[in-house]
Structure formats: C-alpha cells, structure tokens
C-alpha cells in the first residue's frame, strides 16, 4: 500500500471539502428555495447585524455594485422588509433599515435553515460538533478576509 504524499493528501482533503461545501449549499438552497434569494438574505442579515446604513455601505458589505444593491433594496422595500429613513447626519442622504417584518422574515428563514442543519448533525457527538464548529469558524474567517480583500480592489 502506498501512503500518499502530504501534498496529495492535502489536495484530496481540499477537493473533498469543496464537494462537501457545494453539497451543503445545494441542500440548504433546496430546503429554503421558496423563501428568499440568497442576495436578499445577505441584505437582511447585514442590516440586522450592523443596523441602518447608507446603500453604499450595504453594497460594500454584501459585495455588490450600487445598481445591483439598489434593485435588491427596492424589491425588499416593496415587500416591506426594509425601509429608507433620513440620515440624521446628512439630510440629503437616506439610511436603509430593517423593518420588523424584515426581522421576522429573516428569523423564520434562519430557523428553517438551522433545522435543516440540525437534522444533518443530529447523530454527531458533542465533541465532533464542537470540532466542526471551530473549524467552520476558521473557514468563515478566511472567507471574510478574502472577500474584504476582493472588495478593496474593486
């Protein structure tokens, strides 16, 4: 039996992780398909996390250009999930904020997505779940750093 070289094992692990993440994304999308597009979820999430903000700030956080985020915000505004309010620091500008209906919709979406994930890990030991959570946080931090770098270069 041949033991794979460290680089081969790392490549195999990275390949397996890539397919696992794609499968997880597909499953999460299938379980919540009829609820909201991922772009809308990201807008609501960032507004809940950071509070009301100018559309330019929101575009940067979500990673979309101004025209795309403006359309997305317009659609969410029509649904009553976000609202525009005057910016107290600059009367010429508006802030985009999450409405109570938007917060409720995001909470429902999050609960359904969490339930789907809970099903997947129901048989895991607490130790395995803790290890996975720690490593997933590490991956999320790396993703955030990569996205911040890409946004700075746009």
Tally of individual helices:
6
User: Which shape, going by the Cα principal axes?
Assistant: globular
- Could you describe the largest sheet, including whether it forms a barrel? 2 strands, antiparallel
Q: How many beta-strand runs?
A: 2
Low-confidence stretches are none
Oligomerization category of the chains in this entry: single chain
Looking at CATH, the homologous superfamily of the largest domain is: Winged helix-like DNA-binding domain superfamily/Winged helix DNA-binding domain
Helix content: over 70%
Return the structural class.
Answer: mainly alpha
First-to-last CA distance: 49 Å
CATH topology of the largest domain: the name is Arc Repressor Mutant, subunit A
CATH architecture title of the largest domain: Orthogonal Bundle
Rg over alpha carbons: 19 Å
User: Biggest sheet: strands side by side, in what order?
Assistant: 1-2
Percent in strands:
5-15%
Protein name: Transcriptional regulator, MarR family
Pfam family, one: MarR
GO molecular function: DNA-binding transcription factor activity
Domain HTH marR-type: 1-141
């Amino acid at each position: 039996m041949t033991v794979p070289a460290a680089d081969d094992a790392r490549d195999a692990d990275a390949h397996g992780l890539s397919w696992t993440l794609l499968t997880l994304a597909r499953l999460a999308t299938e379980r919540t398909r009829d609820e909201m597009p991922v772009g809308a979820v990201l807008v609501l999430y960032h507004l809940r996390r950071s509070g009301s903000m100018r559309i330019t700030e929101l575009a940067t956080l979500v990673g979309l250009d101004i025209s795309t985020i403006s359309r997305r915000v317009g659609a969410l505004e029509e649904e009553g999930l976000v609202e525009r309010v005057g910016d107290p620091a600059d009367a010429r500008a508006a802030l985009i904020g999450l409405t109570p209906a938007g917060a409720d919709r995001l909470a429902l979406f999050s609960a359904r997505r969490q339930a789907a994930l809970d099903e997947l890990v129901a048989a895991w030991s607490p130790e395995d779940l803790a290890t996975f959570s720690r490593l997933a946080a590490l991956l999320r931090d790396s993703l955030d750093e990569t996205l911040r770098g890409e946004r700075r270069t746009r």
